[in-house]
Amino acid sequence: MKIKTFEIEGPKLIVPKRFEDSRGWLSETWNYKRDTKNGILDSFVQDNMSYSRKAGTIRGLHFQRAPSAQAKLVMALKGCILDIAVDIRLGSRTFGQYIKVELNAEDGAQFYIPEGFAHGFCTQSDDVIVTYKTSKFYSPEHEGGIHWNDPDLQIPWNIDTPILSEKDEKLPFLKDIKCE
User: Fold this and answer.
1) Domain 2-176 = CATH 2.60.120.10
2) Active site residue 62
3) Model confidence pLDDT, tens digit, residues 34-46
4) Looking at the whole model, is its pTM more than 0.85?
5) CA–CA separation, 180 and 169 (whole Å)
C-alpha cells in the first residue's frame, strides 16, 4: 500500500496493493488494523454509492456539521473523477484551501477525507460509479454545502458547462456559511 499526504493536514491518498494473477486482481480496500496504523482512526458506519451518466457531472461540495460531521473514504469503481476536499475547519491555517486528486477505477486509489472538510467531485468520463464510506450517518438537519464555483476558492474543475442538481446550483459561497 502507498500513502500520500498533503500540505493540508489530514487527507490522504491511498493506493491499496493489488494481488494479480491470470484471472485479474484482488485488493483489500479497507483493513482496520492496517489503516489505523496509517492514521485513519475512524469507525465507518455507512457506505454510499453514486452513479453519474455523463462526464462533467459535479456532485458537491457537501459536508455535515457537528455532531454529524463525517470522515469519508472515497473510491471510483468505474470511470474517473476529479475529487476535491476543501478545508472548512475554523482556526485551521489552511482554512479555505483545497486538495484536488484524480481517482479512477484503473489504479483503485482512495481518498481519505477527515471531518472538517467539504467534499465534491466532477466526473471525467461517462458512466461513473463512486463509492464512499462515512464515519457518521447522514443527517439532513446537519447537512451543508458550498457552491462548486465559489470565486474565493478558485477550484480548477476544468469544465465549462457542468451538470448539477438543482440543490447544488443553489449552494452558498464559503464566506456565507457557518463552518465548524
Assistant:
1) yes
2) yes
3) 888 888 999 999 9
4) yes
5) 22
